[in-house]
Amino acid sequence: MIAQASLFLLDVLTAFLTVALLLRFYMQACRVSFNNQIGTFVVELTNWLVRPLRKVLPGWYGIDLASLLPAYLLQVIFVLAVSLLRGGAEGWAADTWLPMLLWRGLLATLRLSIYLLIGALLVQAILSWVSPYSPLSQPLSQLTRPVLRPIQRVVPLVGSIDLSPLIAIVLAQLVLMFI
Predict the structure, then answer these.
(1) Can you spell out the DSSP letters for the chain?
(2) Residue 131: what pLDDT?
(3) Residues near 177 by Cβ (< 8 Å), separated by ≥ 6?
(4) What's the pTM value of the predicted model, to 2 decimals?
(5) Are 143 and 34 in contact (CB under 8 A)?
(6) Which of 15, 31, 9, 3 is nearest to 143 (CA)?
(7) C-alpha span between 161 and 76 (Å, rounded)
(8) Residue 74 reports pLDDT greater than 70
């Protein structure tokens, strides 16, 4: 019971920090301004980890490795903790446990990235109905634009309603089934 509660708390903490780091990474990659509530929150939450890493881990072709690498490593640590607490690590051979651990950490990071995209699409859709001129609308639009643009080129508006967020969510859930 205590192991299960500890695992739950570890999952919540690592997922929360990983999502914040991934959001910082994607906001920078999509050139979203950090001068909004989301940007300020994400920067202040992750600066303690990203700033020191930037001194030793510079960006690579515009990719913010100082935000992406800790997100990935947090998931690797979580996968390792789950394996150790559940006793699944004993079955791994010594030469295969590290690649398996790194692979599962990568899949967990990809999974959280897709959940982040789905969440951004849902919040953007709700804001477009409730408060289209909200200060969060522009950053969310910039964040989801790279995913929605290709779909919008193929799928026309139906009765002046954009179905591309719905299609993107369905496609993201399909990808989640295979990860």
Answers:
(1) -HHHHHHHHHHHHHHHHHHHHHHHHHHHHTT--S-SHHHHHHHHHHHHHHHHHHHHS--BTTB-HHHHHHHHHHHHHHHHHHHHHHTGGGGS-TTTHHHHHHHHHHHHHHHHHHHHHHHHHHHHHHHHHH-TT-TTHHHHHHHHHHHHHHHHHHSPPBTTB--HHHHHHHHHHHHHHH-
(2) 87
(3) none
(4) 0.91
(5) no
(6) 31
(7) 41
(8) yes
